[in-house]
Amino acid sequence: MIALKNNGSAIDEGQIPTLRVAATYSPTIFPIAFAAVAANLLKAAAGWKLERGVTILSLEYLLSCRTVFSAVTVPLSLRRLNILTPLLVALWAMSPLGGQAALRIMDMIPSQVSEPYLFEYLEFMSIPDYLAPFSSAGLSLLPSIQGTFISALSSPEETKAGPRDAFGNVKIPMLEHYSQATIGTDGWHNVSTDGFGTVWSAIIGIPIATQGGFALQQNYSFALNTSYMTADCSVKRGQPMAHRDWYNYINKTRLYRTGRVLIIRPAGVRTRFSKRPMELILEARHHRNETVTNATCVLTTMHAEVDVACHGSACGARRIRRIDKPENVTARTVLDGMVAEGSQKSVPAGVLQAFMETFIRITQTPWETGTPKPFPSPLETYFTHPSAPFSAPEIDSIDGTDISQVGDAVFSQRLSQLLNTFWLSSAASRNLSGHFKFQESPRYTNIIVQNTTGTRTPNHMVMRVSGLWISILFIASTVMLASGIAASIFGCLRRGPDVLDRATFFLRYSPYVSLAEQNSLEDGISQIKRTKNLRVCVGDIRPTEETGYVAFGTVGEAMPLSWQEKERRYV
After folding, report:
1. Is residue 304 domain-shared with residue 158, that is, in the same domain?
2. N or C: which terminal CB in the chain sees fewer CB atoms within 10 Å?
3. Looking at the structure, do residues 485 and 534 belong to the same domain, yes or no?
4. Which residues cross the membrane (predicted)?
Protein backbone atom coordinates (compact mmCIF):
# COMPACT_ATOMS: atom_id res chain seq x y z
CA MET A 1 0.00 0.00 0.00
CA ILE A 2 2.83 2.39 0.79
CA ALA A 3 4.46 1.60 -2.56
CA LEU A 4 1.21 2.23 -4.45
CA LYS A 5 0.67 5.47 -2.56
CA ASN A 6 4.11 6.74 -3.62
CA ASN A 7 3.90 5.49 -7.21
CA GLY A 8 5.31 8.18 -9.52
CA SER A 9 7.05 10.15 -6.76
CA ALA A 10 10.71 11.17 -6.89
CA ILE A 11 13.00 8.51 -5.46
CA ASP A 12 14.38 10.86 -2.81
CA GLU A 13 11.00 12.00 -1.48
CA GLY A 14 8.87 10.82 1.45
CA GLN A 15 9.08 7.16 2.43
CA ILE A 16 10.65 5.96 -0.83
CA PRO A 17 14.26 5.86 0.48
CA THR A 18 13.07 3.69 3.39
CA LEU A 19 11.13 1.44 1.01
CA ARG A 20 14.18 1.01 -1.20
CA VAL A 21 16.32 -0.01 1.78
CA ALA A 22 13.65 -2.41 3.02
CA ALA A 23 13.35 -3.96 -0.44
CA THR A 24 17.01 -4.98 -0.38
CA TYR A 25 16.35 -7.25 2.64
CA SER A 26 13.12 -8.76 1.33
CA PRO A 27 14.71 -11.69 -0.60
CA THR A 28 16.10 -12.87 2.75
CA ILE A 29 13.34 -11.98 5.22
CA PHE A 30 10.28 -13.05 3.21
CA PRO A 31 11.38 -16.67 2.56
CA ILE A 32 12.31 -17.10 6.24
CA ALA A 33 8.94 -15.82 7.43
CA PHE A 34 7.10 -17.82 4.79
CA ALA A 35 8.96 -21.03 5.70
CA ALA A 36 8.10 -20.63 9.38
CA VAL A 37 4.38 -20.14 8.64
CA ALA A 38 4.10 -22.81 5.93
CA ALA A 39 6.00 -25.47 7.90
CA ASN A 40 3.75 -24.86 10.90
CA LEU A 41 0.70 -25.19 8.64
CA LEU A 42 1.82 -28.57 7.28
CA LYS A 43 2.54 -29.94 10.76
CA ALA A 44 -0.83 -28.71 12.06
CA ALA A 45 -2.61 -30.16 9.03
CA ALA A 46 -0.85 -33.51 9.51
CA GLY A 47 -1.92 -33.67 13.18
CA TRP A 48 -5.51 -32.75 12.31
CA LYS A 49 -5.68 -35.31 9.47
CA LEU A 50 -4.07 -37.99 11.64
CA GLU A 51 -6.99 -37.78 14.08
CA ARG A 52 -9.43 -38.34 11.21
CA GLY A 53 -7.51 -40.96 9.32
CA VAL A 54 -4.94 -40.35 6.62
CA THR A 55 -2.91 -42.44 4.23
CA ILE A 56 0.74 -43.02 4.97
CA LEU A 57 1.69 -41.32 1.66
CA SER A 58 -0.27 -38.16 2.50
CA LEU A 59 1.14 -38.09 6.02
CA GLU A 60 4.65 -38.47 4.63
CA TYR A 61 4.10 -35.59 2.22
CA LEU A 62 2.76 -33.32 4.96
CA LEU A 63 5.63 -34.06 7.32
CA SER A 64 8.47 -34.24 4.79
CA CYS A 65 7.66 -31.37 2.39
CA ARG A 66 8.39 -28.54 4.80
CA THR A 67 11.04 -26.72 2.76
CA VAL A 68 11.26 -25.50 -0.82
CA PHE A 69 13.89 -28.10 -1.63
CA SER A 70 12.05 -31.02 -0.02
CA ALA A 71 8.84 -30.12 -1.88
CA VAL A 72 10.75 -31.02 -5.05
CA THR A 73 12.93 -33.89 -3.85
CA VAL A 74 10.37 -35.87 -1.81
CA PRO A 75 8.13 -36.73 -4.81
CA LEU A 76 11.24 -37.77 -6.70
CA SER A 77 12.50 -40.00 -3.91
CA LEU A 78 9.10 -41.58 -3.18
CA ARG A 79 8.20 -41.94 -6.85
CA ARG A 80 4.58 -41.73 -5.83
CA LEU A 81 2.20 -38.83 -6.37
CA ASN A 82 -1.13 -37.87 -4.93
CA ILE A 83 -3.35 -34.81 -4.82
CA LEU A 84 -1.08 -33.08 -2.30
CA THR A 85 1.94 -33.05 -4.62
CA PRO A 86 0.99 -30.09 -6.89
CA LEU A 87 -0.53 -28.21 -3.97
CA LEU A 88 2.67 -28.45 -1.94
CA VAL A 89 4.84 -27.44 -4.92
CA ALA A 90 2.57 -24.44 -5.57
CA LEU A 91 2.64 -23.50 -1.88
CA TRP A 92 6.43 -23.50 -1.66
CA ALA A 93 6.79 -21.69 -5.01
CA MET A 94 5.32 -18.67 -3.25
CA SER A 95 8.41 -18.43 -1.02
CA PRO A 96 11.06 -17.42 -3.61
CA LEU A 97 8.52 -15.62 -5.77
CA GLY A 98 7.35 -13.51 -2.85
CA GLY A 99 10.92 -12.60 -1.92
CA GLN A 100 11.76 -11.54 -5.47
CA ALA A 101 8.46 -9.72 -5.85
CA ALA A 102 9.13 -7.62 -2.76
CA LEU A 103 12.48 -6.66 -4.28
CA ARG A 104 11.16 -5.93 -7.76
CA ILE A 105 7.87 -4.14 -7.23
CA MET A 106 9.70 -0.81 -7.39
CA ASP A 107 11.39 0.29 -10.61
CA MET A 108 13.38 3.49 -10.91
CA ILE A 109 12.58 5.22 -14.22
CA PRO A 110 12.93 8.76 -15.61
CA SER A 111 9.94 10.93 -14.88
CA GLN A 112 7.24 10.77 -17.56
CA VAL A 113 5.14 13.62 -16.19
CA SER A 114 5.28 16.40 -18.76
CA GLU A 115 3.63 19.77 -19.20
CA PRO A 116 3.12 22.00 -22.26
CA TYR A 117 5.89 24.54 -22.70
CA LEU A 118 6.49 27.40 -25.12
CA PHE A 119 9.61 27.70 -27.26
CA GLU A 120 10.95 30.21 -29.75
CA TYR A 121 13.47 29.65 -32.52
CA LEU A 122 15.09 31.65 -35.28
CA GLU A 123 13.47 31.46 -38.70
CA PHE A 124 16.03 30.49 -41.34
CA MET A 125 14.38 32.89 -43.80
CA SER A 126 15.15 35.93 -41.65
CA ILE A 127 16.44 38.81 -43.74
CA PRO A 128 19.89 40.44 -43.48
CA ASP A 129 19.88 44.08 -42.38
CA TYR A 130 22.34 45.34 -44.98
CA LEU A 131 22.29 45.75 -48.76
CA ALA A 132 26.01 46.03 -49.40
CA PRO A 133 29.11 45.11 -47.39
CA PHE A 134 30.42 48.66 -47.45
CA SER A 135 27.15 50.43 -46.70
CA SER A 136 26.75 52.02 -43.29
CA ALA A 137 24.70 49.03 -42.08
CA GLY A 138 27.14 46.61 -43.69
CA LEU A 139 30.18 48.21 -42.06
CA SER A 140 28.40 48.09 -38.70
CA LEU A 141 27.42 44.43 -39.01
CA LEU A 142 30.44 43.08 -40.87
CA PRO A 143 32.65 42.44 -37.79
CA SER A 144 29.86 40.43 -36.15
CA ILE A 145 29.06 38.53 -39.36
CA GLN A 146 32.70 37.75 -40.04
CA GLY A 147 33.35 36.70 -36.44
CA THR A 148 30.34 34.35 -36.38
CA PHE A 149 31.13 32.75 -39.75
CA ILE A 150 34.86 32.33 -39.13
CA SER A 151 34.30 30.93 -35.62
CA ALA A 152 32.00 28.30 -37.13
CA LEU A 153 34.41 27.53 -39.97
CA SER A 154 37.38 27.22 -37.61
CA SER A 155 35.60 25.27 -34.87
CA PRO A 156 37.09 21.88 -33.88
CA GLU A 157 36.21 18.79 -35.86
CA GLU A 158 34.22 17.36 -32.92
CA THR A 159 32.06 20.49 -32.87
CA LYS A 160 31.50 20.40 -36.63
CA ALA A 161 30.41 16.76 -36.38
CA GLY A 162 28.27 17.22 -33.25
CA PRO A 163 24.56 18.06 -32.98
CA ARG A 164 25.27 21.58 -31.64
CA ASP A 165 27.58 24.35 -32.72
CA ALA A 166 30.05 26.12 -30.46
CA PHE A 167 27.28 28.43 -29.17
CA GLY A 168 24.86 25.60 -28.34
CA ASN A 169 22.55 26.19 -31.30
CA VAL A 170 20.73 23.17 -32.78
CA LYS A 171 22.09 21.96 -36.10
CA ILE A 172 19.70 20.82 -38.81
CA PRO A 173 20.52 17.53 -40.56
CA MET A 174 20.70 17.43 -44.35
CA LEU A 175 17.79 15.32 -45.58
CA GLU A 176 19.52 14.55 -48.87
CA HIS A 177 22.04 12.50 -46.93
CA TYR A 178 19.40 9.95 -45.88
CA SER A 179 18.38 7.15 -48.20
CA GLN A 180 14.85 5.86 -48.66
CA ALA A 181 15.90 2.69 -46.85
CA THR A 182 16.24 4.59 -43.55
CA ILE A 183 12.81 6.19 -43.66
CA GLY A 184 10.61 5.31 -40.69
CA THR A 185 7.03 5.79 -39.62
CA ASP A 186 5.35 8.89 -41.10
CA GLY A 187 8.47 9.77 -43.07
CA TRP A 188 10.79 10.30 -40.08
CA HIS A 189 14.53 9.68 -40.26
CA ASN A 190 16.29 9.01 -36.95
CA VAL A 191 19.27 11.24 -36.13
CA SER A 192 22.23 10.05 -34.09
CA THR A 193 22.24 11.74 -30.68
CA ASP A 194 26.00 12.35 -30.85
CA GLY A 195 25.92 13.36 -34.52
CA PHE A 196 27.93 10.34 -35.62
CA GLY A 197 27.50 9.76 -39.34
CA THR A 198 25.19 12.76 -39.79
CA VAL A 199 25.69 15.35 -42.52
CA TRP A 200 24.50 18.77 -41.35
CA SER A 201 22.93 21.40 -43.59
CA ALA A 202 25.16 24.04 -41.98
CA ILE A 203 28.06 24.12 -39.56
CA ILE A 204 26.10 26.53 -37.41
CA GLY A 205 22.72 25.88 -35.84
CA ILE A 206 19.35 27.46 -35.10
CA PRO A 207 19.16 29.30 -31.74
CA ILE A 208 16.39 28.19 -29.37
CA ALA A 209 14.87 30.02 -26.41
CA THR A 210 12.25 29.19 -23.80
CA GLN A 211 10.51 30.94 -20.96
CA GLY A 212 12.86 31.41 -18.03
CA GLY A 213 15.71 29.71 -19.87
CA PHE A 214 16.61 26.05 -19.90
CA ALA A 215 16.87 24.48 -16.44
CA LEU A 216 19.47 21.82 -15.74
CA GLN A 217 17.00 19.53 -13.95
CA GLN A 218 14.49 19.51 -16.82
CA ASN A 219 14.12 17.67 -20.13
CA TYR A 220 12.46 19.37 -23.08
CA SER A 221 11.09 18.25 -26.43
CA PHE A 222 9.48 20.11 -29.31
CA ALA A 223 9.21 20.17 -33.09
CA LEU A 224 10.30 23.04 -35.31
CA ASN A 225 9.71 23.75 -38.98
CA THR A 226 12.68 25.15 -40.84
CA SER A 227 14.34 25.23 -44.23
CA TYR A 228 17.76 25.44 -45.82
CA MET A 229 19.40 25.87 -49.20
CA THR A 230 20.55 22.75 -50.97
CA ALA A 231 22.98 22.70 -53.89
CA ASP A 232 23.11 20.06 -56.60
CA CYS A 233 26.46 20.46 -58.33
CA SER A 234 28.17 19.02 -61.36
CA VAL A 235 31.96 19.37 -61.06
CA LYS A 236 34.45 19.02 -63.90
CA ARG A 237 37.86 20.26 -64.93
CA GLY A 238 38.02 22.97 -67.57
CA GLN A 239 40.77 24.06 -69.92
CA PRO A 240 44.18 24.95 -68.44
CA MET A 241 44.70 28.67 -67.95
CA ALA A 242 47.95 30.53 -67.34
CA HIS A 243 48.31 32.86 -64.37
CA ARG A 244 48.10 36.05 -66.45
CA ASP A 245 45.17 34.75 -68.49
CA TRP A 246 43.30 33.86 -65.33
CA TYR A 247 43.47 37.35 -63.91
CA ASN A 248 42.54 38.88 -67.24
CA TYR A 249 39.54 36.54 -67.28
CA ILE A 250 38.26 37.42 -63.80
CA ASN A 251 38.67 41.14 -64.46
CA LYS A 252 36.53 40.98 -67.58
CA THR A 253 33.78 38.70 -66.29
CA ARG A 254 30.84 40.04 -64.31
CA LEU A 255 31.30 37.97 -61.18
CA TYR A 256 32.09 37.81 -57.49
CA ARG A 257 35.70 36.99 -56.71
CA THR A 258 38.11 36.57 -53.85
CA GLY A 259 40.86 38.38 -55.76
CA ARG A 260 42.77 35.11 -55.65
CA VAL A 261 41.71 31.90 -57.38
CA LEU A 262 37.94 31.60 -56.77
CA ILE A 263 35.04 33.24 -58.59
CA ILE A 264 31.28 32.76 -58.32
CA ARG A 265 28.70 34.03 -60.78
CA PRO A 266 25.05 33.40 -61.58
CA ALA A 267 24.49 31.45 -64.79
CA GLY A 268 22.07 34.09 -66.02
CA VAL A 269 20.13 37.16 -65.03
CA ARG A 270 18.01 36.60 -61.93
CA THR A 271 15.01 38.55 -60.71
CA ARG A 272 12.74 38.01 -57.76
CA PHE A 273 10.12 36.75 -60.21
CA SER A 274 12.30 34.00 -61.69
CA LYS A 275 10.56 30.63 -61.46
CA ARG A 276 13.40 28.31 -62.37
CA PRO A 277 15.98 27.30 -59.74
CA MET A 278 19.05 29.51 -59.53
CA GLU A 279 22.23 28.25 -61.13
CA LEU A 280 25.57 29.30 -59.69
CA ILE A 281 28.86 28.72 -61.46
CA LEU A 282 31.98 28.33 -59.33
CA GLU A 283 35.41 28.40 -60.89
CA ALA A 284 38.67 27.82 -59.05
CA ARG A 285 42.17 27.71 -60.47
CA HIS A 286 44.74 25.16 -59.32
CA HIS A 287 48.05 26.96 -59.78
CA ARG A 288 50.35 23.92 -59.80
CA ASN A 289 48.95 22.37 -62.98
CA GLU A 290 47.12 25.50 -64.17
CA THR A 291 43.79 23.67 -64.33
CA VAL A 292 40.46 25.34 -63.67
CA THR A 293 37.64 23.54 -61.86
CA ASN A 294 34.16 24.39 -63.10
CA ALA A 295 31.14 23.59 -60.93
CA THR A 296 27.57 24.29 -62.03
CA CYS A 297 25.24 24.21 -59.03
CA VAL A 298 21.44 24.34 -58.94
CA LEU A 299 20.07 25.90 -55.73
CA THR A 300 16.71 24.90 -54.27
CA THR A 301 15.06 25.06 -50.86
CA MET A 302 14.41 22.07 -48.63
CA HIS A 303 11.69 22.38 -46.00
CA ALA A 304 11.88 20.08 -42.99
CA GLU A 305 10.27 19.32 -39.65
CA VAL A 306 12.77 18.56 -36.92
CA ASP A 307 12.01 16.78 -33.64
CA VAL A 308 14.30 18.28 -30.99
CA ALA A 309 15.09 16.94 -27.52
CA CYS A 310 16.96 18.81 -24.78
CA HIS A 311 18.64 17.69 -21.59
CA GLY A 312 18.93 20.97 -19.76
CA SER A 313 20.27 23.45 -22.30
CA ALA A 314 21.96 20.76 -24.43
CA CYS A 315 19.57 20.36 -27.35
CA GLY A 316 19.85 18.27 -30.48
CA ALA A 317 17.79 16.90 -33.34
CA ARG A 318 16.62 13.33 -32.84
CA ARG A 319 14.36 12.97 -35.92
CA ILE A 320 13.78 14.83 -39.16
CA ARG A 321 11.33 14.52 -42.03
CA ARG A 322 10.63 16.35 -45.23
CA ILE A 323 7.77 18.85 -45.54
CA ASP A 324 6.32 18.72 -49.03
CA LYS A 325 5.88 22.14 -50.62
CA PRO A 326 4.73 23.28 -54.08
CA GLU A 327 7.42 23.46 -56.74
CA ASN A 328 7.23 27.25 -56.96
CA VAL A 329 8.24 27.35 -53.25
CA THR A 330 11.08 24.84 -53.38
CA ALA A 331 12.51 26.09 -56.70
CA ARG A 332 13.42 29.46 -55.19
CA THR A 333 15.66 30.26 -52.24
CA VAL A 334 16.29 33.13 -49.86
CA LEU A 335 18.78 34.44 -52.43
CA ASP A 336 15.78 34.94 -54.74
CA GLY A 337 13.92 36.92 -52.08
CA MET A 338 11.89 34.08 -50.56
CA VAL A 339 10.39 34.90 -47.15
CA ALA A 340 8.82 32.72 -44.48
CA GLU A 341 5.18 31.76 -44.92
CA GLY A 342 2.90 34.19 -43.14
CA SER A 343 5.61 36.82 -42.73
CA GLN A 344 4.74 40.41 -43.56
CA LYS A 345 8.37 41.27 -44.18
CA SER A 346 9.78 41.71 -47.67
CA VAL A 347 13.26 41.09 -48.98
CA PRO A 348 14.84 44.18 -50.56
CA ALA A 349 16.16 43.97 -54.10
CA GLY A 350 19.83 43.16 -54.40
CA VAL A 351 19.94 40.49 -51.70
CA LEU A 352 21.90 38.14 -53.98
CA GLN A 353 24.54 40.76 -54.73
CA ALA A 354 24.89 41.81 -51.09
CA PHE A 355 25.19 38.17 -50.03
CA MET A 356 27.76 37.16 -52.65
CA GLU A 357 29.92 40.28 -52.33
CA THR A 358 30.24 39.63 -48.60
CA PHE A 359 30.45 35.83 -48.76
CA ILE A 360 33.26 35.62 -51.32
CA ARG A 361 35.68 37.69 -49.21
CA ILE A 362 34.45 36.90 -45.69
CA THR A 363 37.49 34.78 -44.77
CA GLN A 364 40.00 37.41 -45.88
CA THR A 365 41.37 40.32 -43.87
CA PRO A 366 39.79 43.73 -44.46
CA TRP A 367 43.19 45.25 -45.21
CA GLU A 368 44.09 42.72 -47.87
CA THR A 369 45.14 44.60 -51.02
CA GLY A 370 43.66 44.01 -54.41
CA THR A 371 46.92 42.58 -55.72
CA PRO A 372 46.16 39.17 -57.28
CA LYS A 373 47.53 36.20 -55.32
CA PRO A 374 47.58 32.53 -56.32
CA PHE A 375 46.73 31.28 -52.81
CA PRO A 376 43.39 29.65 -52.02
CA SER A 377 41.11 31.05 -49.34
CA PRO A 378 39.55 28.94 -46.55
CA LEU A 379 36.39 28.74 -48.67
CA GLU A 380 38.22 26.51 -51.17
CA THR A 381 40.11 24.50 -48.56
CA TYR A 382 36.82 23.75 -46.79
CA PHE A 383 35.93 21.54 -49.76
CA THR A 384 39.08 19.45 -49.33
CA HIS A 385 39.82 19.86 -45.59
CA PRO A 386 36.51 20.69 -43.85
CA SER A 387 37.84 19.86 -40.38
CA ALA A 388 40.54 22.57 -40.50
CA PRO A 389 40.19 24.88 -43.53
CA PHE A 390 42.33 27.63 -41.97
CA SER A 391 45.26 25.28 -41.39
CA ALA A 392 45.01 23.09 -44.48
CA PRO A 393 48.39 22.31 -46.09
CA GLU A 394 47.45 24.25 -49.24
CA ILE A 395 46.27 27.40 -47.46
CA ASP A 396 49.67 29.13 -47.74
CA SER A 397 50.95 27.20 -50.74
CA ILE A 398 51.33 28.77 -54.15
CA ASP A 399 50.30 25.41 -55.62
CA GLY A 400 46.73 25.91 -54.34
CA THR A 401 44.11 23.19 -53.84
CA ASP A 402 42.30 21.07 -56.40
CA ILE A 403 38.62 21.14 -55.36
CA SER A 404 37.50 18.94 -58.25
CA GLN A 405 38.86 15.83 -56.53
CA VAL A 406 36.04 15.65 -53.95
CA GLY A 407 33.35 14.69 -56.47
CA ASP A 408 29.83 15.95 -57.12
CA ALA A 409 28.09 14.67 -53.96
CA VAL A 410 30.65 15.95 -51.44
CA PHE A 411 31.06 19.24 -53.32
CA SER A 412 27.28 19.76 -53.21
CA GLN A 413 27.11 19.02 -49.47
CA ARG A 414 29.94 21.36 -48.53
CA LEU A 415 28.79 24.22 -50.74
CA SER A 416 25.32 23.91 -49.16
CA GLN A 417 26.91 24.06 -45.71
CA LEU A 418 28.92 27.17 -46.58
CA LEU A 419 25.93 29.00 -48.09
CA ASN A 420 23.56 28.13 -45.22
CA THR A 421 26.14 28.97 -42.57
CA PHE A 422 26.84 32.35 -44.10
CA TRP A 423 23.15 33.13 -44.59
CA LEU A 424 22.46 32.52 -40.90
CA SER A 425 25.55 34.54 -39.97
CA SER A 426 24.36 37.42 -42.16
CA ALA A 427 20.77 37.38 -40.96
CA ALA A 428 21.33 36.94 -37.21
CA SER A 429 25.02 37.04 -36.30
CA ARG A 430 24.44 38.52 -32.85
CA ASN A 431 21.61 36.09 -32.10
CA LEU A 432 23.65 33.07 -33.11
CA SER A 433 26.48 33.97 -30.76
CA GLY A 434 24.33 33.94 -27.65
CA HIS A 435 21.90 36.88 -27.64
CA PHE A 436 18.61 35.08 -28.28
CA LYS A 437 16.10 35.51 -25.46
CA PHE A 438 12.51 34.36 -25.05
CA GLN A 439 9.91 36.93 -26.14
CA GLU A 440 12.51 39.65 -26.42
CA SER A 441 11.94 42.22 -29.15
CA PRO A 442 14.59 41.69 -31.84
CA ARG A 443 17.16 44.44 -32.00
CA TYR A 444 17.16 44.08 -35.77
CA THR A 445 13.78 44.44 -37.43
CA ASN A 446 14.30 41.77 -40.08
CA ILE A 447 14.83 38.96 -37.59
CA ILE A 448 11.92 36.51 -37.71
CA VAL A 449 11.13 34.44 -34.63
CA GLN A 450 8.86 31.40 -34.78
CA ASN A 451 6.87 29.96 -31.88
CA THR A 452 6.12 26.34 -31.06
CA THR A 453 4.68 24.39 -28.15
CA GLY A 454 6.53 21.40 -26.78
CA THR A 455 6.82 19.67 -23.44
CA ARG A 456 8.89 20.01 -20.29
CA THR A 457 9.61 16.95 -18.16
CA PRO A 458 11.44 16.93 -14.80
CA ASN A 459 14.88 15.38 -15.15
CA HIS A 460 14.79 13.07 -12.17
CA MET A 461 14.11 9.45 -11.40
CA VAL A 462 10.74 8.41 -10.03
CA MET A 463 9.43 5.21 -8.52
CA ARG A 464 7.19 3.05 -10.67
CA VAL A 465 5.27 0.16 -9.13
CA SER A 466 5.34 -2.96 -11.28
CA GLY A 467 1.82 -4.34 -11.69
CA LEU A 468 3.05 -7.90 -12.28
CA TRP A 469 5.37 -8.09 -9.28
CA ILE A 470 3.00 -6.39 -6.87
CA SER A 471 0.32 -8.90 -7.91
CA ILE A 472 2.70 -11.77 -7.19
CA LEU A 473 3.63 -10.23 -3.82
CA PHE A 474 -0.05 -9.80 -2.96
CA ILE A 475 -0.77 -13.46 -3.79
CA ALA A 476 2.27 -14.72 -1.86
CA SER A 477 1.44 -12.55 1.16
CA THR A 478 -2.19 -13.68 1.08
CA VAL A 479 -1.10 -17.32 0.96
CA MET A 480 1.24 -16.75 3.91
CA LEU A 481 -1.51 -15.01 5.91
CA ALA A 482 -4.02 -17.75 5.08
CA SER A 483 -1.48 -20.40 6.07
CA GLY A 484 -1.00 -18.81 9.47
CA ILE A 485 -4.75 -18.60 10.05
CA ALA A 486 -5.29 -22.17 8.85
CA ALA A 487 -2.54 -23.47 11.14
CA SER A 488 -4.26 -21.82 14.11
CA ILE A 489 -7.60 -23.32 13.12
CA PHE A 490 -6.13 -26.80 12.74
CA GLY A 491 -4.50 -26.42 16.16
CA CYS A 492 -7.83 -25.50 17.74
CA LEU A 493 -9.62 -28.41 16.07
CA ARG A 494 -7.05 -31.00 17.19
CA ARG A 495 -8.14 -33.08 20.19
CA GLY A 496 -5.18 -35.41 20.58
CA PRO A 497 -1.70 -34.65 21.91
CA ASP A 498 0.87 -32.70 19.91
CA VAL A 499 3.34 -35.47 19.27
CA LEU A 500 4.26 -35.17 15.59
CA ASP A 501 7.76 -34.01 14.90
CA ARG A 502 8.81 -34.82 18.52
CA ALA A 503 11.46 -37.37 19.47
CA THR A 504 9.19 -38.73 22.23
CA PHE A 505 6.70 -39.87 19.60
CA PHE A 506 8.77 -43.06 19.23
CA LEU A 507 8.51 -43.81 22.95
CA ARG A 508 4.74 -44.23 22.95
CA TYR A 509 3.56 -47.81 23.37
CA SER A 510 6.97 -49.27 22.49
CA PRO A 511 7.59 -52.58 24.36
CA TYR A 512 11.31 -51.88 24.25
CA VAL A 513 11.16 -48.61 26.18
CA SER A 514 11.57 -48.75 29.92
CA LEU A 515 9.30 -45.88 30.95
CA ALA A 516 6.85 -45.27 33.74
CA GLU A 517 3.15 -45.27 32.91
CA GLN A 518 2.10 -42.16 30.99
CA ASN A 519 -1.02 -40.18 30.11
CA SER A 520 -2.13 -40.89 26.54
CA LEU A 521 -2.98 -37.20 25.99
CA GLU A 522 0.37 -35.94 27.18
CA ASP A 523 1.89 -33.48 24.64
CA GLY A 524 5.30 -34.07 23.18
CA ILE A 525 6.80 -31.04 24.96
CA SER A 526 5.61 -32.22 28.36
CA GLN A 527 6.92 -35.69 27.66
CA ILE A 528 10.33 -34.28 26.66
CA LYS A 529 10.57 -32.37 29.91
CA ARG A 530 9.68 -35.48 31.88
CA THR A 531 12.04 -37.86 30.08
CA LYS A 532 14.85 -35.51 29.18
CA ASN A 533 17.58 -37.74 30.68
CA LEU A 534 16.29 -41.00 29.25
CA ARG A 535 18.84 -42.60 26.89
CA VAL A 536 17.45 -44.22 23.75
CA CYS A 537 18.94 -45.86 20.69
CA VAL A 538 18.32 -47.87 17.55
CA GLY A 539 19.70 -51.17 18.69
CA ASP A 540 19.58 -54.93 18.84
CA ILE A 541 16.87 -56.20 21.20
CA ARG A 542 18.17 -59.81 20.89
CA PRO A 543 21.89 -59.31 21.52
CA THR A 544 22.40 -62.81 22.93
CA GLU A 545 20.80 -64.67 20.05
CA GLU A 546 22.56 -65.75 16.86
CA THR A 547 20.44 -63.46 14.65
CA GLY A 548 19.70 -59.97 15.86
CA TYR A 549 16.52 -57.84 15.65
CA VAL A 550 16.65 -54.05 15.30
CA ALA A 551 14.14 -51.79 17.08
CA PHE A 552 13.88 -48.44 18.87
CA GLY A 553 14.23 -48.66 22.60
CA THR A 554 16.00 -47.47 25.70
CA VAL A 555 19.63 -48.36 26.29
CA GLY A 556 19.50 -51.54 28.31
CA GLU A 557 16.43 -52.90 26.59
CA ALA A 558 18.29 -52.59 23.28
CA MET A 559 22.03 -52.76 22.59
CA PRO A 560 23.22 -49.89 20.32
CA LEU A 561 24.20 -51.16 16.89
CA SER A 562 27.59 -49.51 17.21
CA TRP A 563 28.42 -51.93 20.01
CA GLN A 564 27.78 -54.97 17.83
CA GLU A 565 30.16 -56.61 15.40
CA LYS A 566 29.89 -55.51 11.79
CA GLU A 567 29.49 -59.12 10.58
CA ARG A 568 26.41 -59.77 12.76
CA ARG A 569 23.25 -60.75 10.90
CA TYR A 570 19.79 -59.24 11.50
CA VAL A 571 16.26 -60.09 10.56
Report:
1. yes
2. N
3. no
4. 468-490
Torsion of CA 549, 555, 557, 562, to 10 degrees: 20
- For residues 473 and 516, state if they share a domain: no
* 490, 45 Cβ separation under 8 angstroms: yes
Domain of 340 in residue numbering reads as 115-236+297-371+382-458
Residue 258 lies in a domain: no
Model confidence pLDDT, tens digit, residues 493-519: 877 666 566 656 666 667 777 666 666
Provide the 8-state DSSP code for 333: -
In 25-148, which ranges are E strands? Answer: 106-110, 115-122
Predicted pLDDT of residue 345: 76
pLDDT digits (tens, 9 = 90+) for 268-308: 777 767 778 999 999 988 877 788 899 999 999 999 999 99
Tally of structural domains, the chain? 3
User: From CA 231, how far away is CA 120, in angstroms rounded?
Assistant: 28
Q: Where are the beta strands (DSSP E) in 251-347?
A: 256-257, 262-266, 278-286, 291-311, 314-322
Claim to verify: residue 339 and residue 360 sit in the same structural domain: yes
Looking at residue 483, what DSSP letter applies? H
Percent of the chain having pLDDT more than 90?
25
Q: Buried b vs exposed e over 383-420: b needs ≥16 C-beta within 10 Å?
A: bbbbebbeebebbeeeebbbbbebeeebbbbbbbbbbb
Q: Is 369 left (phi over 0), alpha (psi -120 to 50) or beta?
A: beta
- Helix then strand count (H, E) for the chain reads 14, 15
pLDDT in tens, 474-485: 898 899 899 899
pTM of the shown model: 0.68
DSSP conformational letter for 341? T
Helix (H) or strand (E) run with residue 457 in it: strand 449-458
Q: Same structural domain for residues 156 and 46? A: no
CA–CA dist 162, 144 (Å, integer): 23
Strands across the sheet with 559-560, in order? 550-554, 536-540, 559-560
Same domain, 79 and 142: no
CB 142 within 8 A of CB 441: no
